[in-house]
Amino acid sequence: MAEADGPMTELASLRQQNELLRQQLADAAQALDAFARGEVDAVVSPGSVNPVLLAESQAQLRRNEDLLRAVFNGSLDALLLADDRGRYVDANPAACELFGLTRDQLLGRSIVEFAAPGYDAAASYRGLQEHGRMRGEFPLVRLDGTRRVLEYNATANVVPGLHLSSLRDVTERLAAEDALHANRAKLEEAQAIAHVGSWTAGFLPDGSVEWSREGARILGVPAGAPMPLTAFFEIVHPEDRERFRHMSHEAIERGTPADIEHRILRPDGAVRWVHERGVVERDAHGRPLRFVGTIQDVTERHVAVEARRSSEALLRIAGRMARLGGWSVELPEARITWSDEVCAIHELPHGTVPTLEQGITAYAPEHQGTIHAGFEACVRDGTPFDLELQIVTATGRRVWVRAIGEAERDPSGAITRAHGAFQDIDDRRKLEDQFRQAQKMEAIGRLAGGIAHDFNNLLSVVISYSELALDDLGPGNPLSADIGEIRRAGLRAAALTHQLLAFSRQQVREPRVTDLIEVVASMKPMLGRLLGEDIALTVLSPHPVGHVLVDHAQIEQVVMNLAVNARDAMPLGGKLTVELANVRVEEAYVGRPRDVAPGRFVMLAVTDTGEGMTEATRARIFEPFFTTKEPGKGTGLGLATVFGIVQQSAGFVSVYSEPGHGSTFKVYLPRTDRLAEAAVSEAPTAFLGGSETILLVEDDDLVRAVACTILRKYGYHVLETSNGGEAFLVSSDFSARIDLLLTDVVMPRLSGRRVAEQLAPQRPEMKVLFVSGYTDDTIIQHGVLEAGVAFLQKPFTPQMLLKKVREVLDADHRRAEEAAR
Q: How far apart (Å, rounded) are the C-alpha atoms in residues 537 and 558?
């Protein structure tokens, strides 16, 4: 409409100028006539009637009129001048072409003559005269009957009494718009049927996106209202926004089509899955103009696909976890089919279709007859079978399996098919074997724990009396050698008890600061005898190593077990190297377990030149009961014990090995800056005596007697009792100071711990030393193995008893000296 205003405005301006010039010329002509008739003596404005000026005005008027006509005739829009009665008084060529008439045929006609039936042209013309300006559409019917739709812009009184109209044929445009509206309606209908919406988006920072009706429905937003892109990004699910932004960036920057599935958060709170595709439209210079694309609600499909995937995954996982598959044999062709899991159990490629003979021969030779008989009875008589047998896999492994089968009959009763299940039960069988072994070990442990107390009491008596006798006889007495042998036998029996408890993991741990160089050096002669003459032993310690906090007996057990393991790996002889070194384990050290902090360690490495191990064997060597030795040749607890001891000492073990290239076991134990504790002193026991009073509570007569003998021999005053009740009576009757309560832990009716607790209020100055031959678990149950509690493990020697008693009695004095230093 704005284009139509141009020529009309220009024409109106020229007509006004012409009217003004005509008025000026008329005024000048009247003044000259009056002067010529003598009616006035002079012209009021002589300049206004100057002949030259008058000629110029007339020329300007002609130029304006020529220009007015040129604009009028040259306009591409139809221009018509009508009088107050609505009859055309002038028309340009475009108007004549529009109406299909010549100028002469058109002039004098009224607009009413060309109006389509039903259109009140007269009323419209009156409205123009009333309002001065009108716009609208006019349904034109030419004289030849053709119909057109005109868009008009009319202005009344462009000059007094004349009205100007500008007309434009919009028939094709309206038809195109109608077609577009129809196509849009069809598109909306198609989108609604297909549940696919469309969108057009501008670009940030002020971009917005317009959705089709179906697109708005999918998003749950009002249709027809542009949405800022920032608001749309808020609809995208938070977990998918970064992926969505990356996709959009790639499409804009690289021109790649956008294709993404993501979640949206609808305003009603619903979460839906949508699939969007889009492309970037660009201008001639490659600059992005807009983003156009489609959006489809794929929630149901996504849920269905995920449900199917989850179901299939669960079935696969269940099959893998249960190691369970299916099989079938079609009869009479004997065509066998295995599921993927059955193929996996046999370590064959998925989809393998073996023959029936191959299926039978896959079993271990000793089990082939059993499965053959079971299968024959099934297909012949319909007898089901449920067997546990071993197969030999494609890689040569023996695996225990459970084979279940039953027959299927046709309506006539003939057996046409056999099918069933096939399950890997190797782990279960191993667990059962381990459980039986564990039961055996538990029985050994219970036996060891049950006999340890009495046996340790007896050994305490034997060893103590032997040493007392040796002290009395002196080295030159002929009986000294025999009694020495008795003492050594007692010590060996004590060591055997300790090993038995260690084997069942019931020994009492006594960690102390230890120098591993001294440990290995003291064990070297024994290791040489253990390894034999065909294995060379080398000990390397290039520099002094730090100290570690370990149980001395347990670390000896670690070295012993590693040496035995290395010896068994070198049946034809070889070389064993024991190496000690200070190392620093960093955070990124690949062999360090997560629960072991990095820092300073002492490394004990045991390297052999034996057979080595495969990766599969190396992965299982620390498992309890795992062994590569022949049945009856090993318990599978040696390396498991090493692993457990090192773990209890806050260290870790790493293993390096390859078949045919030997093995290296590296034990890492945390370093401590404390000085190593001295071994049990062999100094004369006279230095361990004292004059203090000791209340002895021991239910075993022999142990009580030997303990009294030792203590009294070295100057102590001993109050001897056999149970807690006697201890209370003796304490009540004894008015002097009692310096130490020496009590057995486990006694009838009243434990040593209870005795100590009940005597403590009466004698707060009295110290306590617990003694027991029971195992770790039993002592813990009686609340003894706690920080700050003095404890002596049976069997003990006189020196051990005297040293421990002196240590407890002097604890306060020693602490005072340390504080003073």
A: 17
Residues 162, 233 share a domain: no
> What span, in angstroms and rounded, lies between the C-alpha atoms of 180 and 494?
105
Phi and psi for 268 in degrees, rounded to 5? -80, 5
Q: Tell me if residue 656 falls in helix, strand or coil.
A: strand
Which long-range contacts link 369-375 to residues 24+ away (Cβ below 8 Å)?
371/403, 374/403, 374/405, 375/405, 375/418
Distance between CA atoms of 676 and 546, rounded to whole angstroms?
9
CB 795 within 8 A of CB 494: yes
- Does 272 fall in a domain? yes
Beta-sheet pairing, 511-515 with 535-540 = unpaired
Calpha distance 656→667 (Å, rounded): 12
Beta-sheet pairing, 133-141 with 147-159: antiparallel
DSSP per-residue letters across 736-762: S---EEEEESS-SSS-HHHHHHHHTTT
| 267 inside domain | yes
Q: Is 136 exposed, middle or buried (0-12, 13-18, 19+ CB in 10 A)?
A: exposed
Q: What is the C-alpha to C-alpha distance for residues 461 and 444, in angstroms, rounded to an integer?
A: 25
pLDDT at 517 over 50: yes
Q: Which residue has the higher pLDDT, 305 or 319?
A: 305
The answer to whether the CB of 211 falls within 8 A of the CB of 197 is yes
DSSP state of 795: S
Query: Domains in the chain: how many in total?
Result: 5
The predicted-structure confidence for 601-618, as pLDDT tens digits, reads as follows 999 999 999 988 888 787
Tally of CB atoms within 10 A around 394: 12
Amino acid at 738: I
At residue 363's C-alpha, the angle toward residues 357 and 367, to 5°, is 110
pLDDT in tens, 164-205: 888 888 888 888 877 777 777 776 777 677 678 888 888 755
Q: What is the pLDDT of residues 319-373, one digit of tens each?
A: 666 678 889 999 888 888 888 889 989 999 988 888 888 888 899 999 999 999 9
The first and second tokens of residue 731, run together, are 């304490």
| Closest by Cα among 486, 512, 504, 454 to 675 | 512
Distance CA 96, CA 104 (A): 9
Convert 520-538 to b/e letters by CB count within 10 Å (16 or more is b): beebeeebeeebeeebebe
Instruction: Note the pLDDT tens digit of each residue in 694-728.
Output: 999 998 888 899 899 989 999 999 999 999 899 99
92, 49 in Cβ contact below 8 A?
A: no
Q: Is the pLDDT of residue 102 over 80?
A: yes
Rounded to an integer, what distance in angstroms lies between the CA atom of residue 600 and that of residue 669? 9
Residue type, 184: R
Residue 32, pLDDT > 50, answer no
Q: Where are the alpha helices (DSSP H) in 87-144?
A: 93-99, 103-106, 121-131
Q: Looking at the predicted structure, is the pLDDT value of residue 795 above 60? A: yes
Q: Identify whether residues 520 and 594 lie together within a single domain.
A: yes
Nearest CA-CA partner of 751 in 701, 698, 789: 698
Please give the pLDDT value at position 675. 76
In a domain? residue 44 = yes
Q: Per the domain annotation, does 561 fall within a domain?
A: yes
pLDDT reported for residue 323: 76
Q: Comparing 188 with 54, which gets the higher pLDDT?
A: 188
Q: Which residues contact 332 (CB under 8 A, 6 or more apart)?
A: none
Q: What is the pLDDT of residue 374?
A: 94
pLDDT over 70 for what percent of the chain? 79
Given pLDDT bands bounded at 50, 70 and 90, which one contains residue 233? Answer: confident
d(CA 595, CA 670): 13
What is the chain's Cα-based Rg?
Answer: 56
Give the DSSP H/E element, type plus range, for residue 113: none
End position of a domain, from candidates 408, 424, 440: 424
Final residue before a domain boundary, out of 361, 390, 424: 424
Domain that holds residue 524: 509-672
Q: What is the pTM of this model?
A: 0.38
Helix (H, G, I), strand (E, B) or coil at 52: helix
